[in-house]
Amino acid sequence: MLANGVFAVVEGTNMPTRIEALKRFQVVHILFGPGQAANAGGVAVSGLEMRQNAARTTWKEDELQRRLRASLRGIHDRCVQYGRVARSKLMDQVRGANAGFVKVAEARIAQGVVGEGAFPADAATRQTARRRKGAAEGRPMIVTVANHKGGVGKTALAAHLVFRAAESGRVLAVDLDAQGNLSSTLAPRAEMLGRPSAEALFSGERRPEPTPSGLANIDLLPAASALNQTDRANLSAGLQARRFLGELGERYDVVVIDCAPALGLRLTAALAASTRLVVPLVPEAYAVDGVASLLGEATAIQEHLNPRLAPADFVLNMVIRQARSHQRTAEKLAGMVNLRRPYLHRRIAVTDALAERRPVWRSGRSAEAAHEWRELCDALLADFYRQR
Ligand SMILES: Nc1ncnc2c1ncn2[C@@H]1O[C@H](COP(=O)(O)OP(=O)(O)O)[C@@H](O)[C@H]1O
Ligand SMILES: [Mg+2]
């Protein structure tokens, strides 16, 4: 587009233009819009719908249109107001839309529709500022993979992050789910018998020593059935686990923690020690419903215990390409949370590869699966390293 002299780009959906492209547009003053404001219509319609429901009333079509027009005009005016570039006639609509969106976001948080932290634009800005203040090279990089639901791909994603990171550095995998799926993916069960488990992070008198998994560059603190009781332990046990995890983190390039599908002391300790939180979601209509409490927990921990915890990254897993409802859900989620690309499709190759204790890109079963899983892991890891 640049080479062919395009002078204006108008998007019909929420930010398909990536930030790198956007920067290049800005350099040569290509007119660009509406950016994030493309989402405004959908959000406004939802708002109007909620107001009618709350008042148990139904507006006539022309009344609805009038209100919608008024809100969109308001949004546009706010974009102009906040997006004006100093000492020029230019208006940066992306910046304006972000600022304008804060109001919508705050309203939705106030209504309890989703928890604070679900809005990367707002939370990210605050946290970036905080992070810049305390950022230093080479601090431990600890990643928690969590969701309050089971079967969404936490373990599959944790394992793939471990495999990918181990291709270029030393990795510690910590399995906090008593089911031990991550442990058995990374090491034969028999070899972990009697080895220090992740449970000892909470109850041990000394820091547990991880065991080499047998796979290059991967050490493991395996699960133990006692982890089922850990969520009932005292806060002091959680604080000890946080300290041990932090200390272990200094010996590895990356630590990946796989969580049980529960909110509790294990998750609190993991988040208190972590720099990142990755939340896999499946494209169901109610996929984000319980996520608000998880994000609420993450936000509280970020504020009170661990300012280094970055805003959550979301990963969409088990997408079926042909399912139109999945596409719709994906679009909706992308407007609500920091949904990372690419989306992961449901493919049997994933389960098969994990059963063979290797990543899908080493199984030779599905080139597409290999590509999307590797690309996603790289995108996440690149960000994690950058934060450090
Ligand atoms: N993209 C995918 N396609 C097909 N199967 C998947 C995919 N992601 C995960 N699975 C499989 O689904 C099951 C549940 O995933 P898992 O990672 O164990 O979920 P969780 O840890 O959240 O309970 C496992 O058998 C896993 O191998
Ligand atoms: Mg699991």
What does this structure look like?
The model is unreliable at 115-122 and 124-137 (pLDDT under 50). Helices cover 49% and strands 10% of the residues. It folds into two domains: 8-113, NAD(P)-binding Rossmann-like Domain (Rossmann fold), CATH 3.40.50.720; 136-387, Rossmann fold. The radius of gyration is 23 Å and the shape is globular. It has helices spanning 19-27, 40-55, 61-83, 93-110, 120-134, 154-166, 181-186, 189-192, 200-203, 227-230, 235-249, 265-273, 291-304, 324-336, 348-355, 367-387, and strands spanning 8-10, 31-33, 142-145, 171-175, 211-212, 218-221, 254-258, 276-281, 313-316, 339-340. Helix 2 crosses helix 3 and helix 3 crosses helix 4 (93-110). An eight-stranded mixed sheet has the order 5-6-4-7-3-8-9-10, sandwiched between helices. A two-stranded parallel sheet has the order 1-2. The chain contains 16 helices and ten strands. Strand 5 (211-212) and strand 6 (218-221) form a beta hairpin. The longest helix has 23 residues, at 61-83. It is an alpha/beta fold and 388 residues long. Bound molecules: adenosine-5'-diphosphate (ADP) and magnesium ion. Magnesium ion binds at residues 154-155, 177, 181. Adenosine-5'-diphosphate binds next to helix 6 and helix 15.
Total number of strands: 10
What is the approximate shape?
globular
User: Helices and strands, in N-to-C order?
Assistant: EHEHHHHEHEHHHEEHHEHEHEHEHH
Question: Span between N and C termini?
Answer: 35 Å
Strand content: 5-15%
Bound molecules: adenosine-5'-diphosphate, magnesium ion
Task: Identify low-pLDDT runs.
Answer: 115-122, 124-137
Tell me the CATH architecture of the largest domain. 3-Layer(aba) Sandwich
Overall mean pLDDT stands at 87
Helix content: 40-55%
